[in-house]
Amino acid sequence: MALSFFSLVTGLYVLHFSIALILVNKEVPQTRGMLYPRESETREVRSLDGIWNFVRSDQANPTQGVRDEWYAKELSKSRPTIPMPVPASYNDITTDNLRDHVGTVWYDRKFFVPRSWSKDQRIWLRFGSVHYEAYVWINGQKVVKHEMGHLPFEAEVTDFLNYGAENRITVMCDNALIQTTVPQGRITEVPNDGGMTIVQSYTFDFFNYAGIHRSVHLYTTPRTFIEEVEVTTNLSKDATVGEVFYSVSVNGSAANEADNVLHIQANLYDKEGILVANATSDQKLGGKLQVNPVKPWWPYLMHSEPGYLYQLEIKLLATNDELLDVYRLKVGIRTLSWNSQQFLINGKPVYFRGFGRHEDSDIRGKGLDNALMVRDFNLLKWIGANAYRTSHYPYSEESMQFADEHGIMIIDECPSVDTENFSQELLGKHKSSLEQLIHRDRNHPSVVMWSIANEPRTGSVSADSYFELVANFTRSLDKTRPITAAIAVPNTQDKAGRSLDIISFNRYNAWYSNAGRLDMITQNVIDEAIAWNKRYNKPIIMSEYGADTLEGLHMQPAYVWSEEFQTEVFSRHFKAFDELRKKGWFIGEFVWNFADFKTAQTYTRVGGNKKGVFTRARQPKAAAHLLRKRYFALGRDLDQCSFPDDLFTYIADLIS
Ligand code: GCB
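Above: the input record for the complex with GCB. Below: its predicted structure, written as tokens.
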């Protein structure tokens, strides 16, 4: 009896094993709208963050709530609820084992909508991210469904709300990962002490945190409103004149009236709020602004004024110049270019010195946390990093804006990690994850590269056409940024590199191979980077290297897991990187990882992955001080930055 019951459950999470050798390029639905919610004279924004009510479904009966229509009334009428913070992962909040729950959970809360909102405007409900799949009801009516963690989605709820009255929002979230989700996982049914249970497994090395991870907003727009703004920029050869190209799409009935010719008034303001350029759009609602003299957007430590942002004000006007809508966004003016040797920003070669990271912290899991975000950026700047990769999924929009402001370059990664079993269905979802990511992040000056996967199994035959299709699709959406993927298969087996612009490779010398052998790092790194470059004739990045390190464990001579060992591992890599830098095509080094983070339970992980340069509480390990000296030394050598006063501790007069 129990067995057939559980078979039904696993059947719901159908397992796909199709090895598709012939993959067809199918259209992916285009994301619309979803400009970051901002207030203006025509828009209001209201946060629905706070404490929501929460129910976990019975693991063996994940669809019960839908069948029994839990969304039709308050959740507490169907099941006892517990308080749950939003935004946050739900996993580490309770004292029982909610952590390892597989399947659906439910949230609801009430909120008030003012009477004033009923007048001649539209109301939108927007989620920054829910992992992994979300179903949303307003006052018992279904308004939106979205699949894919770490990416925003929204729905117009104008006709679902009670104005001048209380409303209820209900969310069902499903964390199950199968072979056709991004990322992939497996659901199996296995015997346990009580009979049978379902188990979620995955190969990727971070905890599958779930829930309402980022903020929930209600916002208003006028009936006819600015739905999309796309911005690209250019610089004159001598970098004195900047150009901002904008294109706007409008949604609403006024856009369809034949005698109403809508137009855009675009105004560009500098940091001091001074108008530096303005223009009226053409009939396609696009145009160009010229800034002379311009202050280009530069990465941190590459210029004395990094992260310079202008404010672009987009005003939507009717034929009679009536103001219909206003939206403002920050714009950084910069160029990117690349060839077989280099990656350049504003015509200057870039050497990346950065990190692979995670959105991860104690208690909150992957929940948006402004305190953590600001602390992390302070540490990035303290250590002299100029870049990070959003390993292994899109990070919060708030952090993307922060990176723009602080001049931190981002390799923006979609949620495809350890990609395998390349099926047609997976291809569609993978492309959709990139479409959503690029749609969300295309206007950020900090985003300098797209990463289309981390450690995909690119040795398999079907990886060849699969990644060609994924890379071409990405290029069709954005030609202004290069494409990479962090590859771990040996270069002789790889079939994806030919489709990329820049090759990134992950390798753990002296850790997963030749554990403890510090004398087997430098030459291996040099040889492997050369081999990648020889094979593809493209710029090369080492996108991951490192060693698990238990804070406070000291052993001399260095021994695995000790702080001495991590320091030595880094130093041996630095030697290799300096050799490689001389070759001209080696363009960056990224430590794995910025901070310790939680993983699934396994005997290789003591409380999680400990390869952080910082602890999970964001305090430096010994290697952080070494890395800081290197990153600033590189900054001074390559970009003429100055050293912070406290970089070197006074030792003696004899040493300078
Ligand atoms: C990798 C993965 C990363 C892991 C890391 C490790 O290659 O890309 O997700 O956390 O190795 O520490 O094993």
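Notes for the reader.
The domain at 348-639 is CATH 3.20.20.80 (TIM Barrel).
The first strand starts at residue 45 and ends at 47.
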